[in-house]
Design a protein that fits this description.
By secondary structure, the chain is mostly helical. The chain folds into two domains: 64 residues, Arc Repressor Mutant, subunit A; 141 residues, Orthogonal Bundle (Tetracycline Repressor, domain 2). Helices cover 74% and strands 0% of the residues. It is built from ten helices and no strands. The longest helix has 30 residues. It is elongated, with a radius of gyration of 20 Å.
Length: 219
């Protein structure tokens, strides 16, 4: 078992019933709320204790460190994000029979789901630059979303004119995610966050992606 595996196992060591479960949930909710309020992870376990109305001893009984608590918070946030993301991707696939309208729906799904979870994701993604476990877990979530969206697009490869649909779809997702993440201020550099019009960004991204996938001019 690697060091990262040990850290993840610790984060997953959650009670399953009764008062212990309720106390555990308050710890996670309090830490998540502080992440959102501060926009970073610069808070203490004592502050978590006060906000969650749990004793500091109870926190240390469940988590060996603040790092372990933050790892558990990340797992909770990403579980909620992934559940919402996959459900909405499924709805987009079921509700749009043609590639252009599917692209619009998928851009909307990715953009709005990431924006919904932005207050939690921004500090977690900033932490990923110095915390290998946070980075690893975050990458797994990212890849799950990437694979689901690329699979949805490739279901319509018959409508594509690009010579290499897999390559085109892969490039499309990377550019789409990067543009949305930059706007939302994810990562360590956020000086360009919130630049431009959100609705225009989504519309233009969808138009560019659809035009690219349905063109054979460059590939």
């Amino acid at each position: 078992m690697t060091k990262d595996d040990v850290g993840l196992a610790t984060a997953l060591r959650a009670p399953v019933q009764g008062r212990s479960k309720a106390s555990y949930e308050r710890m996670l909710a309090a830490a998540e709320a502080l992440l959102i309020e501060r926009g970073n992870d610069e808070f203490t376990l004592l502050e978590v204790s006060k906000k969650g109305k749990v004793s500091i001893g109870s926190i240390y009984n469940r988590f060996e460190s603040k790092d372990a608590l933050l790892h558990a918070v990340q797992l909770r946030v990403l579980e909620q994000l992934d559940t919402a993301m996959f459900a909405r991707i499924g709805q987009a696939r079921a509700g749009h029979a043609a590639l252009p309208s599917l692209v619009v729906a998928l851009v909307e799904t990715l953009a709005e789901t990431l924006r919904e979870f932005g207050p939690q994701m921004r500090p977690l993604m900033a932490r990923a630059s110095t915390d290998a476990l946070v980075a690893s877990v975050g990458k797994a979530s990212y890849m799950g979303t990437a694979n689901a969206i690329k699979e949805a697009l490739l279901d319509h490869r018959g409508e594509m004119k690009v010579k290499d649909p897999e390559r085109a779809v892969d490039s499309t997702f990377r550019i789409l995610y990067a543009a949305i993440a930059r706007y939302l201020g994810f990562g360590t550099i956020s000086t360009s966050a919130w630049e431009g019009d959100w609705l225009v960004l989504k519309k233009d991204l969808a138009q560019m992606i659809a035009a690219f996938l349905m063109s054979d001019a460059l590939m």
